[in-house]
Amino acid sequence: MLKAEAISKIYPMGEVEIHALRGVDLELESGELVVLLGASGSGKSTLLNIIGGLDTPSSGQLYYHDHALHKANDQQLTRYRRDHVGFVFQFYNLIPSLTARENVAMVTDIAANPMRPEEALERVGLSQRLHHFPAQLSGGEQQRVAIARAIAKRPDILLCDEPTGALDSSTGGIVLQVLQDINHELNTTTAIITHNAVIGDMADRIIRLSDGQIVDQHYNSSKRSAQELHW
Ligand SMILES: Nc1ncnc2c1ncn2[C@@H]1O[C@H](COP(=O)(O)OP(=O)(O)OP(=O)(O)O)[C@@H](O)[C@H]1O
Which residues form the signal peptide (predicted)? Predict the structure, then answer.
């Protein structure tokens, strides 16, 4: 469903250029769960942001089905993000003055074919927290609200940048289990960025980046349930 060919990204920084990505080829297949591993600065977030239409490549081609995203203008990229992509970040980015339900409703109010906020929150196990404000929720619960918000519009692609980076291992396991369940139940193509190689065990495919290049990728023959993972 998504194909990146020879993607490079150069950030000009004064006199020097930072080569964040150097010729990345990547295909994401419908319904798969991919984990992207790599050291800090290897280009993981840059790649995810380009795939999600938050950033544009300096060179290379990017196709979502037959849409050439590398040629898209701002308006077309906004539409692609709004209609097809869900994002989950390390810090949950919830609106503090809105309840869990209202945070999710912000998205469902503008989406084409959304699920009800109650359904999205039920899918992440938060039916009992609909009217809580973010400050009244634990970190893991806040991340689950962020996931409910991301999936409520039924995105084709869910992109998660260090979704458990701020969580302890057992809370992180619950959040990852939610992502794995949603991938399974809704067939949402899912990419998870992490520093943590253990998380690769829950993936269909593991991709490793180093210095702006994909240096290894393989299918995982012994996929495990996220809640079995410990780090
Ligand atoms: N907006 C930017 N302007 C300039 N340089 C950038 C920008 N974004 C990223 N970079 C640089 O590009 C390289 C790749 O960064 P990126 O954030 O993609 O790495 P990462 O693998 O996600 O790292 P981390 O795990 O620490 O988040 C780094 O050297 C970074 O400093």
Answer: none
Closest CA to 128 of 67, 138, 24: 138
* φ/ψ of residue 166, rounded to 5: -105, 10
Q: Ligand 1, atom 29: nearest CA belongs to which residue?
A: 41
Cα(51) to centroid(ligand 1), Å: 15
40 Cβ below 6 A of ligand 1: yes
Q: Whose CA is nearest to atom 24 of ligand 1?
A: 40
Beta bridge partners of 64: 2, 67
Ligand 1 centre distance from Cα of residue 41 (Å): 5
Ligand 1 pocket check for 215: Cβ under 6 Å? no
Instruction: Work out the number of other CB atoms within 10 angstroms of the CB of residue 159.
Output: 28
Residue with tokens 């991938």: 183
214: β partners: 209
For ligand 1, the distance from its centroid to the CA atom of residue 139, given in whole angstroms, is 25
Between the CA of 78 and the centroid of ligand 1 the distance, in Å, is 22
The ipTM assigned to this model is 0.94
CA gap 140, 160 in Å, rounded? 14
Evaluate whether the domain defined by 31-53+85-228 bears CATH number 3.90.1150.10.
Answer: no
Residue nearest to atom 16 of ligand 1 (CA): 43
State the pTM of this model: 0.94
Question: Which bin fits 53, alpha (ψ -120 to 50), beta or left (φ > 0)?
Answer: left
SS3 call for 179: helix
> Which residues is 9 bridged to in the sheet?
21
